[in-house]
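Q: Given only this backbone (123 positions), what sequence would you predict?
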């Protein structure tokens, strides 16, 4: 499991006087390029979508163990999203009733806007 690396340091961002009192932030990184657990298609897909290294951090909890779990969950979800294959879209046509509803709506809107205008001189 050499592709996975941990890093811990103080919580980043605002926090006033309590920001640097506990090193509970966890960062996990996964070396996609060096991974032997991925097949060639998975490797190519992850390199294209996420790059050679994927990182996830967590500083949500005051417990470092909990932050490790959160960071690992975030890493898992990033990898899963990167590996997800989008189904190919089949083009479809709107039904006749949908087309009629759309045109009726456009007609109502144009009538509404026309009636908002200034009255003509013959009225």
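A: Predicted residues:
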């Amino acid at each position: 499991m050499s592709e996975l690396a941990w890093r811990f340091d103080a919580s980043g961002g605002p926090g006033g006087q309590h920001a640097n009192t506990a090193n509970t932030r966890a960062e996990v990184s996964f070396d996609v390029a060096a991974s032997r657990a991925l097949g060639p298609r998975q490797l190519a897909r992850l390199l294209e979508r996420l790059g050679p290294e994927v990182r996830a951090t967590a500083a949500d909890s005051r417990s470092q163990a909990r932050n490790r779990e959160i960071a690992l969950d975030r890493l898992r979800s990033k990898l899963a999203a990167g590996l997800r294959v989008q189904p190919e879209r089949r083009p479809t046509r709107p039904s006749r009733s949908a087309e009629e509803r759309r045109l009726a709506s456009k007609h109502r809107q144009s009538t509404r806007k026309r009636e908002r205008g200034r009255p003509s001189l013959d009225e």
